[in-house]
Amino acid sequence: MKQKKKLRIGTIGYGFMGWAHADSFDRAGKFFDADYEPVFQTVCARNKENAQDFADRWGYKTVETDWRSVVNSPDVDLIDICVPNNLHADIAIAAAEAGKMVMTEKPLAMTVAEGEKMVAAVKKAGVPNMVWYNYRRIPAVTLAKQVIDSGKLGRIFHLRAQFLQDWTISAAVPQGGTGTWRLDIAAAGSGVTGDLLAHCIDTAMWWNGPITRVCARTETFIKEREHAEHGKVEPVGIDDACVFLCDFENGSLGNFESTRYARGHKAKYFIEINGEHASIAWDLHDLHRLSYFDHKDDSLVRGWRSIHVTDGDQPYMSHWWRPGLSVGYETSFAHQAADFLASLSGNKPVGPTFEDGLQTQKVCEAIIASGKDRSWKDTGASKML
Ligand SMILES: NC(=O)c1ccc[n+]([C@@H]2O[C@H](COP(=O)([O-])OP(=O)(O)OC[C@H]3O[C@@H](n4cnc5c(N)ncnc54)[C@H](O)[C@@H]3O)[C@@H](O)[C@H]2O)c1
């Protein structure tokens, strides 16, 4: 086996994403062949016992309860941020100032202003950086990007996306605290816009270029909820649902919808793009398939194809099992970790960088502003990697 350089990871947070990222680096190290070997150095969370349990499962060497000590540790090369949104900026900026590489969960920040400071910090420090918009690296979604870039779709007319859930319909669900911080504006920054639509926006702009203008309708169906930490009933500041229309720089039209009030839907992420010659659609519930319609096909057999994205010449698949055998949700994170590790050798950034995450943040912020006064807003977003 070739001798590899060690990349010592300090993971901040051991929740849903802490698990996903630990698994991703574990798989990236084993299934991919970068010059860097991920090492689980430190995990940080406020509850030491739980953090220790996580550390034991994944093989982290040490446990910390204060993220500042991880950021300043000489034993850590990469800070991986897996905590609620209100902590991303402070940790990322401190990490960059300490000369560490930084990966952060999405959304990049709470606001554009915060995101700009994060981008400035990683640029000043010259450190590799990435935002975990993982859905780009589901092989079918990556394949779609390749097909779009090949020009097969021709002129693009439409892009539509939905991200639907149903877990906050009950008024008894609290806001804030562990598990329900997503409902607390102070921890999340926004509701479905930053949590769910941000994924669709990242993929949409990666596929189809910048979103230049938005017009949104946001709604908070349940106006007050008990706060999980102190028990007081407080106004709800997040958007429970959001639909928005948009213009893309290339002249195509977008319509997006997200809600946590679509009874029956747990994580329905659907995205479709329609061009002059062909269309592509993808659905998270059938994530290893890409739907493709090509008007240039012989009319006798023309129709939607369901491409089973499992062959060795399709994105990432040569690293996994045998042709015909599918991979799951978790591998999107493994692919991102693998691409990050590979990028360190060439010193060539891979998207989504912090700068790219900032473009999505700009669109999210324009959506929230538009939802307030229901007018069209320019986003100022530019092309991303
Ligand atoms: N890429 C994706 O698909 C995806 C999916 C889910 C969540 N996320 C993002 O990941 C981030 C975390 O979400 P999650 O679902 O893993 O949340 P979670 O509630 O499951 O876990 C949050 C973790 O943060 C820790 N934490 C909170 N405050 C802390 C502090 N001050 N110091 C250290 N640790 C602290 C908690 O102990 C917990 O381990 C969020 O930004 C979220 O938007 C992304």
Quick recap of the structure?
With about 375 residues, the chain is an alpha/beta fold. The protein has helices at about 15-30, 50-60, 65-70, 90-95, 110-125, 140-150, 185-190, 190-210, 330-345, 355-375, and strands spanning about 5-10, 35-45, 60-65, 80, 100-105, 130, 155-165, 210-220, 225, 235, 240-250, 255-260, 270-275, 280-285, 290-295, 305-310, 375-380.
Note down, in words, how this protein is organized:
The protein has 385 residues and is of the alpha/beta class. The chain has 2 domains: 130 residues, NAD(P)-binding Rossmann-like Domain (Rossmann fold, 3-Layer(aba) Sandwich), CATH 3.40.50.720; 241 residues, 2-Layer Sandwich (Dihydrodipicolinate Reductase, domain 2). A 9-stranded mixed β-sheet has the order 16-15-14-13-7-12-11-8-17. Strand 13 and strand 14 form a beta hairpin. Helix 8 packs across helix 10. The protein is globular. The site of nicotinamide-adenine-dinucleotide has 21 residues, from helix 1.
Mean pLDDT across all amino acids: 97
* Largest sheet: number of strands, sense, barrel closure: 9 strands, mixed
Distance N to C terminus: 33 Å
Helix-residue proportion: 25-40%
> What's the CATH class of the largest domain, please?
Alpha Beta
CATH topology of the largest domain: Dihydrodipicolinate Reductase, domain 2
Structural class: alpha/beta
Radius of gyration: 21 Å
Small-molecule binders here are:
nicotinamide-adenine-dinucleotide
Number of distinct helices: 10
The helix-strand sequence is: EHEHEHEHEHEHEHHEEEEEEEEEHHE
